[in-house]
Amino acid sequence: MCIGIENENSDDLEKNKTAYGIEKWGLFEVSCQAQVSGNPYEVEFGAEFRHAKHAAKVSGFYDGDGLFKVRFMPQTEGEWTYITHSDVRDLVGQRGSLNCVAPSTNNHGPVSVVSPSRFAYADGLPYLPVGTTCYVWNLQNDELEEQTLRTLEQSPFNKMRMAVFPKRYTFNTNEPPGYPFPGTPSNHWDFRCFNPGYFQHLEKRILDLQRRGIEADLIIFHPYDSGAWGFDRMPAKVNDRYLTYLVARLAAFRNLWWSFANEYDLFPERTMQDWDHYMQLVQHIDPYNHLRSIHNCMAFYDHTQPWVTHCSVQSQDLHRVPLWLKKYGKPVIVDECGYEGDIHMIWGDLSPEEMVLRFWVGFTLGGYVGHGETYVNPEGVLWWSKDGQLHGESAPRIAFLRKIFEQAPAAGLTPIGKLDNETINMLEKTTSIFDQGRDVDRIIAEGRWNVEAGGYCGDDYFLFYFGMRQPGSRNFNLPPGSFRIDVIDTWNMTIESVAESASGAYTITLPGRKYMAIRIVRNL
Amino acid sequence: MCIGIENENSDDLEKNKTAYGIEKWGLFEVSCQAQVSGNPYEVEFGAEFRHAKHAAKVSGFYDGDGLFKVRFMPQTEGEWTYITHSDVRDLVGQRGSLNCVAPSTNNHGPVSVVSPSRFAYADGLPYLPVGTTCYVWNLQNDELEEQTLRTLEQSPFNKMRMAVFPKRYTFNTNEPPGYPFPGTPSNHWDFRCFNPGYFQHLEKRILDLQRRGIEADLIIFHPYDSGAWGFDRMPAKVNDRYLTYLVARLAAFRNLWWSFANEYDLFPERTMQDWDHYMQLVQHIDPYNHLRSIHNCMAFYDHTQPWVTHCSVQSQDLHRVPLWLKKYGKPVIVDECGYEGDIHMIWGDLSPEEMVLRFWVGFTLGGYVGHGETYVNPEGVLWWSKDGQLHGESAPRIAFLRKIFEQAPAAGLTPIGKLDNETINMLEKTTSIFDQGRDVDRIIAEGRWNVEAGGYCGDDYFLFYFGMRQPGSRNFNLPPGSFRIDVIDTWNMTIESVAESASGAYTITLPGRKYMAIRIVRNL
For chain B, what is the radius of gyration of the CA atoms? Predict the structure, then answer.
């Protein structure tokens, strides 16, 4: 017996299902009861979904309690029918239908890459990733997890880096509430099976994020295991089975991104070919082509590989965003440039001023930057991993930044960088990485180089950020036309309009403080 | 008729000459009166100085008013004799002697390079360049120049970047009080001759610096002429004659350094071979082998050339000091990393916090950093060029830094850098530039990488700087022995002793503020 419903784990009927059926990019689930001899996790099971103009083959999975499920995210409105297939007779040839209707207001569909530097939701709405990092927020306890969600509701963050597996590391010495495989730590696992409850909880939290407009940048593998569970060194076949299971369970969640690893280069036993393989496998079996990335510690993965959709970067040097944009030809998210905090390690001791500065440099240069917070507190609950509350000063400034960049042209900004020739020549052995920026010489003349970081869009929009500089003025030769000019205090979060219709040669007076920016926007 | 005296331009008899003769590294001058037919600047004239163990051939010069001079800086105590030579009969075979005695207290002799990263005076006293930039302070007026000297007396600066030629540039639109050649601007010069008064004034100011313990880093050519005088595009023969004249006049000043150009790469009409030639020429004719460098705008000169004694660098990225130290194998002075100020250009708008931060990063990583100040003021007199007074907040912090580094081991610091692998690999195509630093893994363990910039000397001395970070603690595994530990607030200029005799595994608590440093010194 099979029934087709929205995901039973979901309580957001009003979002994913309307009175008339499943909304576009909602999650439709076919659930079939069957008794099988042998290992139910090894049962072949799936369904084909058909629409007047489309068809999709979708793999199913075993969810425990005799239940086999297929999940489907319809991407086209109208009537869909489905038929199941399996190597178990009871699961073969089950049929049903669903009516896919228009998405609800806050459902914009999955995010994808729409240009060499930009993302957008499936409905065309631009998406600017403003992420934070809560590695194992989903593996704490309900009280803390609910607190995290309440904090997120007040935060500017629309992407969350989070892991499937538990974490053992400084400040992370607790056992998770459950395990992904049946068995006991540290190494008695039945890798032939999964623990459905573990993944059901993960899905609940992914939906919690979805409801709050937050993409789940799901870290599939990470090296912070320390022998506690051995999930960082499972046999190759288990890794493949795990990936296949994840795709079957999770691919129908529209806010899902695949992050194949955190700090992939810290896994001593894996080769680059292993990582290539994982990404190629998921690329092959994910019906929805969710975003795929892989995050480095020191050495970058080759983000030019066709199975990588965007760059997920760890680096403390945001000034190199233009270099990576050019080198990889894909959007650049510096997920980890250091976290605001005061811990004893260099990756978690940024002052809030420096955290905000790095956001401004990265965004102005056409990239995206991720947040994290690591203030030591008596409870030992740090946002970057266990989450709960934010204690720092950067989040409101990041909210302010997000507004500024959401008002910027959707086409994105061409960077005006300040990498010096030595770096450019040595890194590239070619001409300037700012070739694209040369047009701006004509346009903005002296202002061209006199920034900490700058970005522009055609001759309609210019944004200049000054960081730890404290200019008292800047001179510009404005393009033909009339421009509105704002002086932005990125720390105090103020925008002062200094000209409503400036034109020609124009000197902008600045207050001689740190953390200032200038925005020049064409009057239409 | 010739007389041998200390330089008549000098009024510091008590320093360069004692009751018994000329002190070591003092300036002895032979002055001969002669009438010549033809151009006296084309007369061949010089002298040979002889000591029981040494001899030196020194070129002379025409100083106007029928006076031909030879200047000599004795580097060995004892009796010296001299005999002149010339192609003019009256100037041939003039003899005399001088008694070279021990140097006075504040005379340590000329500075030279004593290791791949260090300078010292001739008497062995380590010299840490803590320079400032006052390009044409010597071409203003007596009142302003004397004010500059009074300001310098209160400052931490022991090196001055200054130019021979006048400067035409933003904030520099005045004519100098005189010109190096007879004639009138903009291009009516008699390049066959010189204007001795112009150079006499320059010498007076070089001696004024010498008396205050300041090295004169003399910029021979600069591109900031704008057609006002054409000194940036003189004929090749004139350039050579000018260099020869400079060496004859100035080489006997012990505090002189040759800086062949400021921003050599901004001269459109000169080839790299031209610059090679200038430096080789001076290397050949300077009897004292004064320090020789050449300062870039964008593209670095090849500082590995044997005629370059040290790197004079313009760059905003102090984190690369270890790279340059390794690449060039010579001391690195980042003369220009931006100036404290508020002008409309990026090279002169650093906040004082950023200026001081850059000093700390550069010095901690084993290099030296230069200061400049460019605050707009009603008089249009900016320190970086016309000088006078300092208005900023960095100078006292630089004085504090100088004390810290003068207390550090004379052997200098091995850098502990934070250039990431991407840069290192791409810049070098080799292994880490921090090879030398690997020993420190054994020594200081976790503290190894957790710095903004760090330096150490053997296992006796460690200095860690945190910049815009705000750590609450750092953990160290101290080497065997007992150590004194100080927490330094580089902005508020305080040193707090946190341990008198720490050993073994040790956690240092920090105040969670920006701009902090830790100093760990072995108790002997």
Answer: 24
A173 burial type by CB count under 10 A (0-12 exposed, 13-18 middle, 19+ buried): exposed
Q: Are B181 and B193 in contact (CB under 8 A)?
A: yes
Backbone φ and ψ for B496, nearest 5 degrees, come out as: -110, 125
Q: State residue A324's pLDDT score.
A: 87
C-beta separation of B194 from B205 below 8 A = no
Residues counted in chain A: 524
Specify whether the CB–CB gap between A336 and A347 falls below 8 A: yes
Contact A247, A21 (CB under 8 A): no
Give pLDDT tens digits for A60-97: 999 999 999 999 999 999 999 999 999 999 999 999 99
For the record, the structure tokens of A27 come out as 């999650």
Contact B214, B159 (CB under 8 A): yes
Tell me, what's the pLDDT at A2?
67
C-beta separation of B125 from B33 below 8 A:
no
Helix (H, G, I), strand (E, B) or coil at A475: strand
Identify which of B81, B77, B84 has the alpha carbon closest to the alpha carbon of residue B104. B77
Mean residue pLDDT of chain B comes to 90
Q: Give the CA diameter of chain B.
A: 81
What is the structure's pLDDT at B417? 57
Please give the interface size between A and B, counted as residue pairs whose CB atoms are below 8 Å apart.
124
Give the closest of A315, A354, A514 to B351, CB-based: A514
Q: Encode A180-203: b = buried (16+ Cβ within 10 Å), e = exposed.
A: bbeeeeeeebebebbbbebbbbbb
d(Cα B128, Cα B121) in Å, to the nearest integer? 10
Nearest to A344 among B315, B421, B475 (CB): B475
Taking chain B, what is the end-to-end CA distance rounded to the nearest angstrom? 61
How far, rounded to the nearest angstrom, does the alpha carbon of residue A110 sit from its chain's CA centroid? 11
Say what the pLDDT of residue A299 is. Answer: 82
Closest among B284, B391, B230 to B59, alpha carbons compared: B284
pLDDT above 50 (res A335):
yes
- B380, B386, B388, B390 alpha-carbon torsion, rounded to 10°: 80
ipTM of the complex: 0.89
pLDDT tens digits along B169-218: 989 999 999 999 999 999 999 999 999 999 999 999 999 999 999 999 99
What is the rounded distance in angstroms from the CA atom of residue B128 to the CA atom of residue B143?
30
Q: Residue B313's closest chain A neighbor by CA?
A: A422
Which residue has 């050579």 as its token pair? B240
Q: Name the residue facing B420 among A316, A349, A451 (closest C-beta).
A: A316
- Distance, in angstroms, between A513 CA and closest chain B CA? 8
The structure's pTM equals 0.92
- A-chain residues within 8 Å CB-CB of B468? 350-351, 353-354, 357
Q: What is the mean pLDDT of residues B307-336?
A: 92
